[in-house]
Every structure is written in C-alpha cells, then in structure tokens.
Amino acid sequence: MSSTDAKVEQMFQILLDPEEKGTEKKQKASQNLVVLAREDAGAEKIFRNNGVQLLQRLLDTGETDLMLAALRTLAGICSEHQSRTVATLSMLGTRHVVSILGVENQAVSLAACHLLQVMFDALREGVKKAFRGKEGAIIVEPGRELKVLISNLLELLTEVGVSGQGRDNALTLLIKTVPRKSPKDPDNNLTLWVIDQGLKKILQVGGSLQDPTGELQVTANSCMNASILLSKLFDDLKCDAERENFYRLCENYIKSWFEGQGLAGKLRAIQTVSCLLQGPCDAGNRALELSGVMESVIALCASEQEEEQLVAVEALIHAAGKAKRASFITANGVSLLKDLYKHSDKDSIRIRALVGLCKLGSAGGTDFSMKQFAEGSTLKLAKQCRKWLCNDQIDAGTKRWAVEGLAYLTFDADVKEEFVEDGAALKALFQFSKSEERSVLFAVASALVNCTNSYDYEEPDPKMVELAKYAKQHVPEQHPKDKPSFVRARVKKLLAAGVVSAMTCMVKTESPVLTKSCRELLSRVFLALVEEVEDRGVVVAQGGGKALIPLALEGTNTGKTKAAQALARFTITSNPEMTFPGERIYEVVRPLVSLLHLDRSGLQNFEALMALTNLAGISERLRQKILKEKAVPMIESYMFEEHEMLRRAATECMCNLALSKEVQDLFEAQGSDRLKLLVLYSGEDDELLQRAAAGGLAMLTSMRPSLCSRIPQVTTHWLEILQALLLSPNQELQHRGAVVVVNMVEASREIASTLMESEMLEILLVLAKGEEGPITRAAAACLGKAVEYGLIQPNQGGK
C-alpha cells in the first residue's frame, strides 16, 4: 500500500464510507488529501485516479467538513493549471460550482470563493510553472470558459435563495477578475461585456434593502461591495461613448423602478442612487438630477415609516458629498435634518440625521474662515457622535454612522483636540475598526488622516495671498490648533491609545472595502506617525513595519510613495534586520528604489538613498536585490546632483554597493568616468562627501588592484588629493587616504616610485612615527614596500 495511487484510493474509501462518519480517521484522510493536492505531482495523481468525480460525491454529501476538504482539494488540482481547470469545470458543471457560493454556511462559501478565484487565475494566466504535459491539446479557448464562469456569477447575484454572504463573495470575485489589472492593457472588452450583460443585476443587489420580506438576501456590506464593483467597472472605461452607455443603463434602471412602481419602487430607486453615489458618483449625481428624485428624497425624510426614512436620509447624506449640492441642501434640508435629529425617537434615524448635519457642517473643509454652522455647533455634534460610538447597546450599523460623522467633523481642529483627549472614544473606534463591519474602514482612516493632518497641504505664497486679498478673493485660513506643535501632540496621544495595532488589523483585511484610496489614507497616517525619530520604535514594536510593506506594493501612486517613505525612515534610524526580520527585508528594496524616480521630491530621494545605503551594507544578497531592481543608474545620477546632501547620500550608497563584483566591473570598465568622480570627490571641501568617496576608493583599490594604475590617469590633481587626505586633521579621512596609498604602492613599482619622489614620502615618514594605530601601520607598510622595491633605504638604525 506504499504507492501514492493506492493511498489516494484508500483515502477516498475512508471518506465515502458511511460507517466512518465523524471519526478521527476520516478527518485525517481529508487533511492528507488537501496536503497532497497542494503539490503538483500529488494533484496530478488525484486527478488521474478519477479524483474529480469522487470529490463531487463528497460535495453531494452536504457534510461541512467533507465539502471543505473537497473544495480545498479541487483548489489544489486547478491551481495554475489550465487544462485541469477546464476538465474540472466540465466534470462538475460550471453552474454547480458557482451555486456552492450561495450556501448558508460561511466557511463553505469562502472555500468555494477561493476555488473559483484559483480557477479564474488559471484560465487568465495559464501555466506559470514549468511545462506540465500537453496543455495545448486540451485548451481550445480559455476565454470562453472565463465568460461562462462570469455569466454564472452574474446570474447568482439575483437568484432568490442565495445567502447574503454568497452574494458578497460573488461580488468580490467580480471585483478581482473583471477590470483590467493595468491601464496599459488596451483590452477592456470583458468590462464592456459585463456592463451589457450584468449591470442591472449589480444595481439590483446595490438597491436591495437588508432583511425585507420577499427580497434578495443581502448583508450590511452588500451595498458597499456593489458600489466598489460599479466604481471599478466605470474606471475601466476608456472613452466618453462607453461612459455615456453606462450612465444611460443606470438611468433607465432607476427610471424603471421610480415610475409606475409605487412607493416600494421609489425606495428601491433611491437606494440604488445611494449605491451609485458611493461608487461611480458621476453616475449617481446624474441620477439625482432625474425629474422628481431629489424631491422624493426630501419628502420621504418626513415619512413616519422607519425603513423609508432610513433610505431617504442615507441618500441625502451621500448627495451632500458634492459642494454645489451641499450648499443646496444646507439651504433646503438642514431644518429637516435638525427636526429628525431632535424629534425622532429612533436612534438609527437620529444618528443618520446627525451625520447629514456633520457632512454639511464640514463643507468648508479645513478652512477656518468657512464656517457652515454657528460657533460650537460642530463640537456638540462631535460629542454626540463620540457618545454613540462608546455605547455598547447600539448595533454595529448605527455605530458606523457615528464614525462617518466623526470623519467629517474632524476637519475642525477643535473637534480633533477633543477627540484625541477622549481615551474611551479612541478605544471604541480602534475596537470597531477590527470588527466584522468592514464598511467602516474608510471612515476610520479618514478620521485618522484629519487628526494627524497627513493630507497634502502647501503653504500659500505670501505675495499671492496679498494679491488675493487686494482682489477681494476668498483666502483659506488655517486653524490655530492645526499648527505643527498641536499635530505632534495629537500623534503622541494616538500612539499611546494603540492606533498602530488597529491600523495593522485594517491593512490585513481581506475585503474589497479596503480600496486603493483607503490604503492611501492608511499610508498617509503611517507616514505622519513616523515623522519623529523617537516614535518609530513604538510603531515598529506594534507591527507597523510589517503592515507598511503591502501598502507600499499595492494602491494608488501617492499611497505607495507615502508608505515607501515611511519604510525608508524605519530603515534609516533602526536596524533593518530587526525591523524587517527574515525574508521580509528583501521586500523593502523595491519600494525604496521607487523613491529614486525623478518625479519624487528631493526629501524622498534623500531618504531612499540613506535607507539603501544601510541595506547595501548588510549582505551580498541584499546588494544583488538592489542591483536587480536597476537602482545603480539612478544612484549614479544623484552623484552628479547640485544639492550636497543628495550627492553625499548617493556617494555613500555607491560606496557600500562597491562590495559587489558587478559594481566593481562598472568602475573597471574602459571609458568610464566613475573612478574619476570618486577621486575628485575625495578632494572636495564637504568632509562627509570626502569620507564617502575616499572610503569607496579605498575599498575599490583593495578589491581591484588594476584600478590603482588608473588613478594617476583620471586627473592631474590625484597626488594633491591623496596628500590632502593624509594631512587631514580628521583621522577617518587620514586612514582612508593611507589605505589607498598602500594599495597603490603594492600594485606597482612605477606608481610607488612616483609617490616616493613627491612630498608623499615626508608625509608617510611623519605618519609612521605617530601613535600606534591603523594609520601608523598603513604608513609603515608603504615605506616597507618602498624599501623592498629599492626606492628608499632604511636609516642606520634599521628603521
């Protein structure tokens, strides 16, 4: 029974034996099958031994453990293998595989989601690993299979009887697989096909209310997931004609529910508009402008039915996102929202009305002079939000709106100060960010960005401010409590409250709600937290270093840059091997190299060079990783920079990289001025630049003696530069100069002769008589070699 074939057969026998139900033996067999399927050879064995049909029998049992084992084994069989994936779909039936997503059991639905993701990757990417048999003989058109899978997912969205979790998983799969991975890919046909075939189905999920009778079953996150998918599809469109088609389909769908469907139809239409406003807001804004929509929203806010009020108030809140409409609602809807807030006996309505007021109250952003409400009103609203946030009796959905309110109100510096002083509110916020309520992530990140002032802010030019005042134009004013000293104090309080561990949990979230823009906000906060050197240890200790790597590798360009800059600051001030243990240290290189691009700021370039200098000094493997990322040409270009700090940092980095054979080859190449630059920099007035260049020169001449003979050829001032190094009051420079001279003397008698005929001999004689140390030893070694060549003779004492 030792052969793999026999073991596979034995495991299936145990799993399908009704007498073995629930036994430890059965559990062990299922685990073995999953482990075996993870290896390509094992997966092939299971596949060839009629494994897919046997796994189908396991799926049909309805037992959770057996279904999970079967789905995980199938994922191993299909992983990165097109032909097996197509064969599996053919045997099981695409419809049957997709239908497993809709089961009530959350674990089984997630396992089915993972299997479908593996299948999508296999069909899209093909085989990444080594050649695996006659792939081409089986696969005719994987694109057709891909469309069949997506078509079944779209059908699942609107099927009655599908669980809310299953619907969310289907939306997540569509988010990950339909839009193009890069704008450089010209083919967006799959997106256009999905919009034509399934836009109405996606809108139907987005417009569904939670827990109504006879409706589609949805979760609290379904509307947000639908919004994200709609946003991704809209962003994937390339021209105005495609966007117009998207608008038209959305408007026709909303009209179909709004006209002639009674109150229930109007509610669904308004909920769909809310969904669009949270995703592709241009489409949502156009829908709001349809005849009667905005009027119905205002009218339904006054309804006596809680469900109708909820839908209308939420739509009003989302509609207030545009400054132009916010001013319209401020004029027409504030009294309505105030009445709801003061007189409604339901917390769910009151809190939404409060968020509407918060959003309108923050329409001026950080501009101190643009106050929407009377002095002190925003502080009262914020206090109520914090009170709801700390109330454990309130459900998660209602608490989310309290966080939304704070996200808007924290534009006001007075609110920020009160919020960071409230330890209970901060603790409640961080606990809530770790909960299952994923749609709160963006609001939490927004509130933290506001508290740390980590949004982009440029100090206005005083002359332009004077000009604007003269022209009677509005000039934004900064709040007195938004000055750097207040911001630093707030950062300290957030760190003490445990903000880093909360943000680390947010980064780990496997949910489409963690969008690129949400990642960017988290990156901004991390960068603000590591501004002060003394705070960096706390951030690292709470897992900040680990959390920043995924933020630096995926997200918006701004977000990736901010995260990379935070990584650079860690690498500069702490031991990289401790901050990024194990293999993680190699993942840091690419984000750091990205900061060297010319479109980054001078500070970002400087910090990246310093961080790479530290990494290059650790190991050869890290140096090879830096070379592989094509960093050397960029580092060399910064060696020619006018800014002395950039020039120095680049020279130091190159000095450490010179330990690698490939970099030494570059310096040795004929027609290269690299060596000349190092020699000239060794004679510069900037002592730190001198030290870096002389260190690189000492290292290169030690490892490549052939370079010694080229130093006199690169510049006529070489002798003066070396003499200046040896006469420097700085012992570090003296030592580096002495090592270069030793290497040159040992390299050839001719160079030694030139050196001994100059004033260098007297300098070496003086240095050799100094206190015992590396400089004295190097000088003595030079003189000893000169004696050996017969260029000088020892004095009568034999010294």
From TrEMBL:
One of its GO terms (molecular function) is Hsp90 protein binding. InterPro entries: ARM-like, ARM-type_fold, UCS_central_dom. This is Protein unc-45 homolog A isoform X2. May act as co-chaperone for HSP90. Prevents the stimulation of HSP90AB1 ATPase activity by AHSA1. Positive factor in promoting PGR function in the cell. May be necessary for proper folding of myosin. Necessary for normal cell proliferation. Necessary for normal myotube formation and myosin accumulation during muscle cell development. May play a role in erythropoiesis in stroma cells in the spleen. Keywords: Cytoplasm. It is found in: Cytoplasm. Pfam families: UNC45-central. Residues 208-360 form the UNC-45/Cro1/She4 central domain. Signal peptide: none annotated. It comes from the Eukaryota. GO terms for cellular component: cytoplasm.
